[in-house]
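Endonuclease YncB, thermonuclease family, Nitrosospira multiformis. C-alpha cells?
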Amino acid sequence: MLSAVFLATVVGISDGDTLTVLKQDKQQVKIRLAEIDAPEKNQPFGTRSKQSLSDLCFGKRANVIPHTKDQYKRTVARVSCDGIDANAEQVSRGMAWVYKTYARDQNLYRLQSEAMTARRGLWSHPSPTPPWEFRKPK
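C-alpha cells:
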C-alpha cells in the first residue's frame, strides 16, 4: 500500500534522481524521482546532476507525492523542495532526461526541449547518452 502525500526533510542525495528523506516519525525513505532519469555517476554530468539535486533539496523541507515502488523498493515520487518541483527543475537545468517509458507530465517534454535548445547541462555535450542506454550491457 502506497502512502499518501507526506512532508519530510531531505537528508541524503545518492545521484541526480535519487534522494533520502527523513519523515516526521523519524523513518528514512529512499525516493526515486518519478518520470525523469539522471546520468549515472560515471557518465558525463553524473556528478553535476547529483550536485544540482543537492543544491535544490539537501537539508530542505520536501513535499513527497508517492506514485509507486520500483524494483529496488524505493518510493517513486514527485518531490518539491521548498516549493520547487525537483523533478521538473532537474530536467529544466539539463541535469536529467524525461524518462519516456514512465513520463506522464507533458510539461517535462517542453522543459527538456528548452534545455536542449539552450544547450544547458548535459545538452552541452556533443552526444549525450541517455542513462537507460548507458546501463544496457555492452
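Residues 42 and 134 are 10 Å apart (CA to CA).
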